């Protein structure tokens, strides 16, 4: 099991962050634009929850790519506790798999939280915590390391995109 944490400040209050974060247009701009995913479908969005089905563009070492195949997709299910300003999410295998995908139920699990705290002056701090667990003898650690590296790169891209979207709130 591997964990990762990242924090950064935003020029908006927590309510502004959640307004952007739950906006389906922002979600598409993030996944299809900034992150370069092959597909992103907003399955459900409410004031306190969101379900996405995404197909990432993979840049994986050979053994991992052979395991996952080129049709790898997942669903991201998240819920918001507004009182705590905390988003809890988990990656789940989609109900309808791409026919090219190789079903690997619960071999790799990813979950996390996003905590947003007001820092004063109309600003906030976002803290992401990620847990990755790959249950594959011999290559589990490699999968976890690659997933952490990809997540950290995605956080940097998301931070840049968020800054532009948050600026529109003013």
Describe what this molecule looks like in 3D.
- It comes from Sandaracinus amylolyticus.
- This is DUF2505 domain-containing protein.
- Pfam families: DUF2505 (PF10698).
- By secondary structure, the protein is an alpha+beta fold.
- The protein has a single domain, classed as 2-Layer Sandwich (Alpha-D-Glucose-1,6-Bisphosphate, Chain A, domain 4), CATH 3.30.530.
- The chain has helices at residues 14-21, 24-34, 62-68, 140-167; strands at 2-10, 39-45, 49-55, 74-81, 86-92, 108-120, 123-134.
- Strand 6 (108-120) and strand 7 (123-134) form a beta hairpin.
- Helix 2 crosses helix 4.
- The longest helix has 28 residues, at 140-167.
- It is globular, with a radius of gyration of 16 Å.
- The N and C termini lie far apart (41 Å).
- The relative contact order is 0.23.
Parts with pLDDT < 50 across at least 5 consecutive residues: none
The secondary structure category is alpha+beta
Query: From the alpha-carbon coordinates, what is the Rg to the nearest angstrom?
Result: 16 Å
Total separate domains: 1
The CATH topology label is Alpha-D-Glucose-1,6-Bisphosphate, Chain A, domain 4
- Level of helix content? 25-40%
Architecture per CATH nomenclature, i.e. the level-2 architecture: 2-Layer Sandwich
Specify the number of helices: 4
Strand order of the largest sheet: 1-7-6-5-4-3-2
Strand content: 35-45%
Tell me, what's the shape?
globular
Largest sheet: 7 strands, antiparallel
Question: Superfamily at the CATH H level?
Answer: START domain
Protein name: DUF2505 domain-containing protein
